[in-house]
Design a protein that fits this description.
alpha/beta, TIM Barrel, Oligo-1,6-glucosidase, domain 2, Immunoglobulin-like, 3 domains, 5-stranded antiparallel sheet, 15 helices, about 15% strand, binds alpha-D-glucopyranose
Length: about 550
């Protein structure tokens, strides 16, 4: 199949269905709700939807523990309604991609149940090991979510590996039958008309032979299962299936550098199309939000610039500020006080970079991180388990502050549609707390307000689609030393974009870089005024401006 690389002109929207919109009145977001909101999604000027897992699941990790890869959870409305959503999206010119979670299944998946009983062909579908002679665990690896990475199974009388929760046993991808299952899953959805996959922790699927002990003091094992020995080989096998469809693949990859990313997405026949790097989430922490530091614009800019330059001409970036695994970005990199303004500055900071951007549900409304008083109020298992690891020296208040800054639940509260009860998310009591700021922050309030964040996103995305320079232009950063302004340019033969974003409430004197005459530019996107003085301006709090300079002799668009 001839590939069109449609994703390079696309903007994605991520739906974490449980919190998007409840259509059947049981308090849980579902596909009926999505169906009702397809016009809203289209109105954002996005071109594709990525659904976090929709498969049947006991929800130990909200869908990332899959019980059946070829069905849609009844909680979300089942297969029939999914097909309606798929058709409805396609009719509106939007693609749909699924989440492919193949590093692990749920322990309630029939494969695992059969594997426990050593029923063929499932005996070696998972990574089973005998206890060591002295009764010790097979090795010293840690799970990322829940204690040690091994759990003893009474029935089989062996340990199984689980890199995430106890209820997420790791699949044994070294078994060719398991890889055949993956290929079947790919074909199943692609034949149905789905347009691709976001591949969950895909760089973990090949573990080092003999599962050696780890010498690292923390996150033991990660160097032995991240980027393992057969990873590229297995992905190439999947590529043989994918190549028969004009689809996209996006690989999620913890600990990813640009060099590593290019191993997957560079070269003549890339295994995957784009990679999700966690570095974009490191503007205020070291590797994880549980190791926080003060937000550093300079660090963030260096990361953005590095990915722009390193992938230039070699690979395609996947751009994001939020997803279901992180607190809301305004509460982290922006300012809740200048919520709308900083939301706009953040949007302009990434929407004009080269790559394919994704907007996470509610990001376009400037939703902030949900803050809950007690650990029991949080639903996410990673959050609850991290809380247990906090030093006893911390006060309860300090612990809850850290949880607020780090918890994935911060970004998982129900979408705020309007100011009616439950934020218009559901007529029943929602499965999770609605952020109490919904009377002020909601979609309805922003719909007709020209200056709203919602309409800023819409305009920014429209401009992205209209301006070829966003796809092709060369990236250049100005003032990299500034810890207050992010200024960058995209330049093609006939167009130049100059993006200026302030990350402070203080006034900053900005002067256009050499070669620019602001008076000759068109201010195509702005958060505040238009005044120019001495070829520059003094910024308002978190001000953002995007100027377009066009060579009129050339025909553009
Ligand atoms: C990915 C998902 C996350 C999930 C984990 C295990 O990081 O984004 O939500 O918990 O993988 O599947």
């Amino acid at each position: 199949m001839e590939r069109t690389f449609w994703y390079k002109d696309a903007v994605f929207y991520q739906i974490w269905t449980r919190s998007f919109k409840d259509g059947d009145g049981d308090g849980v977001g579902d596909l009926q709700g999505v169906l009702e909101k397809l016009d809203y999604i289209k109105s954002l000027n996005v071109d594709a939807i990525w659904f976090s897992p929709l498969y049947p699941s006991p929800n130990a990790d909200y869908g990332y523990d899959v019980m059946d890869y070829m069905d849609i959870s009844q909680e979300f409305g089942g297969m029939e309604i999914f097909k309606k959503v798929l058709d409805g999206a396609h009719e509106r010119g939007m693609k749909v991609i699924m989440d492919l979670v193949i590093n692990h299944t749920s322990d309630e998946h029939p494969w695992f149940q059969a594997s426990r009983r050593r029923e063929e062909p499932y005996t070696d579908y998972y990574i089973w090991r005998q206890p060591k002679r002295d009764g010790m665990l097979p090795n010293n690896w840690d799970s990322l979510f829940e204690g040690k990475a091994w759990q003893y199974d009474d029935l089989r009388k062996e340990y199984y590996l689980h890199l995430f929760t106890i209820k997420q046993p790791d699949l044994n991808l070294d078994n060719p039958r398991v890889r055949d299952e993956v290929k079947k899953i790919l074909r199943f959805w692609l034949d149905m008309g789905v347009d691709g996959f976001r591949e969950d922790v895909i760089t973990f699927i090949s573990k080092r032979e003999n599962l050696p002990n780890s010498l690292l003091p923390v996150v033991r094992g990660i160097t032995h299962y991240s980027h393992g020995p057969h990873l590229h080989e297995y992905l190439m096998e999947f590529r043989d299936v994918l190549d028969r469809y004009d689809c996209v693949t996006i690989g999620e990859a913890p600990l990813l550098t640009t060099g590593k990313a290019l191993e997957f997405i560079g070269g003549p026949r890339p295994e995957l199309d784009m990679m999700i790097t966690f570095q974009y989430m490191e503007g205020d922490c070291f590797f994880t939000e549980y190791a926080p530091h003060k937000f550093s614009l300079r660090k963030m800019k260096a990361i953005w610039s590095h990915w722009q330059k390193a992938l230039w001409g070699k690979g395609w970036n996947f751009l994001y500020l939020e997803n279901h695994d992180h607190p809301r970005v305004i509460s982290r990199y922006g300012s809740e006080k200048y919520r709308v303004e900083s939301g706009k500055a953040l949007a302009a900071s990434y929407l004009f970079l080269q790559g394919t951007p994704i907007v996470y549900q509610g990001q376009e409304l400037g939703m902030t991180s949900l803050r809950l008083p007690k650990i029991e109020d949080y639903e996410d298992i990673q959050t609850r388990n991290h809380y247990k690891l906090f030093s006893t020296k911390l006060s309860e208040e300090e612990k809850m502050e850290r949880i607020w800054k780090a918890s994935r639940d911060g970004g998982r509260s129900p979408l705020q549609w309007d100011d009616s009860e439950n934020a218009g998310f559901s007529t029943a009591e929602p499965w999770f707390t609605v952020n109490p700021n919904y009377p002020q922050i909601n979609a309805a309030a922003q719909e007709d307000d020209e200056d709203s964040l919602l309409n800023y996103y819409r305009l920014a995305l429209r401009l992205r689609h209209e301006l070829p320079v966003v796809r092709y232009g060369v990236y250049r950063e100005y003032m990299p030393w500034s810890d207050k302004l992010y200024v960058y340019e995209r330049r093609s033969k006939s167009q130049r974009l100059l993006v200026i974003c302030s990350y402070t409430e203080e006034p900053v004197a900005f002067k256009a870089p050499r070669g620019y005459d602001l008076q000759k530019g068109r201010l195509i996107l702005r958060s505040h005024g238009e005044e120019i003085k001495d070829n520059g301006f003094t910024t308002q709090p978190y001000e953002s401006r995007v100027y377009l300079f066009q060579d009129r002799r050339q025909i553009v668009i």
